[in-house]
Amino acid sequence: MAVVNEGALKKMLKQYKYRDLTVREITNVISQYKDLKPVMDAYVFNDGSSRDLMSLTGTVPVSYRGNVYNIPVCLWLLDTYPYNPPICFVKPTSTMMIKTGKHIDANGKIYLPYLHEWKHPQSDLYGLIQVMIVVFGEEPPVFSRPTTQPPFPSFQAAGPPNCK
Asked: How far apart are CA 91 and CA 98, in angstroms?
């Protein structure tokens, strides 16, 4: 996939209040984390309203017990970014399940002190991803879905046994 250029990003982010800051951060992050891609899509808020927002979608490399795992994430940037923190989710693939914990809810939403205490310019996407990598390395947000058990052999439903 072609590298997204700043001009294309600026067009996509035309309704963002701090477009240039947002573009700079996105280009910085996607140059470091090649698997994250900027995507414009409709984000549906809890109240049912939706807005076209930029998300960074892809995986971040997390080291856990000596192995590196690519954790799928989606970081939604509000149109007031970077003065408001991103809304972050773990996006498990079909072979993964969400592991709820103090940082992840059942919907995959990510809760971190870094997000809660977000303050521009000290807080940025790059720093957020660094924190995620550390936290997920201690407490992975997803686990492999158990492989399905072979189905039980099917028995013919034959009613009650014949008693003679």
From this structure: 8
Q: Per residue in 107-118, pLDDT tens?
A: 999 999 999 999
Q: Is residue 112 part of a domain?
A: yes
Tokens of 72: 């799928």
Name the token pair of 85: 């923190």
- Cα–Cα distance for residue pair 82/126, rounded to 1 Å: 12
pTM of the model: 0.86
> Rounded to whole angstroms, how far apart are CA atoms 143 and 97?
5
The boundaries of the domain holding residue 50 are 6-144
- The structural domain count of the chain equals 1
- Of the candidates 18, 78, 90, which has an alpha carbon nearest to the alpha carbon of residue 52? 78
The amino acid at residue 92 is P
Does residue 144 contact residue 95 with C-beta atoms inside 8 Å? Answer: yes
The CA distance from 112 to 118, in Å, is 10
Terminal C-alpha separation, the chain? 73
